[in-house]
Amino acid sequence: MASVLVHTEDESVTLPPQALKRLLERGDGDAALLYLALLRHHGATAPRSLAGELRWERPRIEAAESVLRELGLVIPQAGDLDPADEKPQYQRADIAAQLEENEEFSRLSSEVERRLGKKLSTPDMGTLLGLYDYVGLPADVIYLLVCHCAERTAAQYGPGRRTTLHQIEREGYAWARQGIDTQAAAAEYLRKYAERQGILPQYMRVLQLGERPPVASEEKYLQAWMDMGFPPEAVALAYDKTVLNCHELKWAYCNGILKRWHAAGLHTVDEIEKKDRPGQGKEPPATPAAKEQDVAWMRKYIQQRDKGEA
């Protein structure tokens, strides 16, 4: 039976002749579909942000984008996704349309409201839609992200404290930068996160801070020390040196000691005691300027960690 093209009344998309020729010669259906999606958005959005609309996982959309680059139909842009970047400003009508036409997003928003125990405002819904539509995280990954942020906030501040959509957004962008965009990748990340959280009390004890959970700023230091490869016993040595020189725990000073050991390739107690001799390295000065320098280092470290460079 012969078929004829169905003309709709939707907004048309004009395909440039040269682009059409290149796509037909290449014969890559995913590349052609991604190019059409980009044209539909008037080229005002990054290819990776269409993963949610196309229901593609990251490897598929990256492969299609790579083909478009080879064909000269898109050019790479510098920089990573970041909440501070310009992003779509979803209006009430945009959100209403998604809730009505997109069953998956409608179900996701309902589950997020149930998990957070509150009705999402229009800005909140816009943030959620941004993670789904602009960042391109699948609905199941976003729900795992929301649960993770809610549990982390409750653990840090008590069960009565709720996480915010702003916190969820920042964590979502961090996940996207690290390639955590499938249920399997999210589950693996959460497994490792739980392991690390289970070790944190050991570090708190060697720092003589008792059984309380670390506050956010303390946890950043502890996570950085774990990433550098220091076991609790090595941190205990740095703590002893800190108290000896400062008469109390000063996080920036202790971090300076550990950074020096890390640069020298010393991480275990045995390595430190054998090779870190008096006079081989100066301890960081316990001054406000040193603390500011340490804060700058911590910010840079967190940025590198989120981008997978640490």
Give the SSE order as H and E letters.
HHHHHHHHHHHHHHH
State the shape.
Answer: elongated
Report the sheet-strand fraction.
under 5%
Share of helix, binned: 55-70%
Please report the total strand number as a whole number. 0
- Structural class estimated from helices and strands: mainly alpha
List low-pLDDT spans: 1-7
Number of domains: 3
Mean pLDDT level: 83
In short:
This protein is an all-alpha fold and 310 residues long.
Any overview of this molecule?
With 310 residues, the chain is mainly α. It folds into 3 domains: 17-70; 92-181; 201-304, no CATH class. The protein has helices spanning 17-26, 29-40, 51-54, 58-70, 92-101, 103-116, 122-134, 139-157, 165-177, 183-206, 216-228, 232-246, 251-263, 269-275, 288-306. The longest helix has 24 residues, at 183-206. It is elongated, with a radius of gyration of 25 Å. The N and C termini lie far apart (60 Å). 27% of the residues are buried. The model is unreliable at 1-7 (pLDDT under 50).
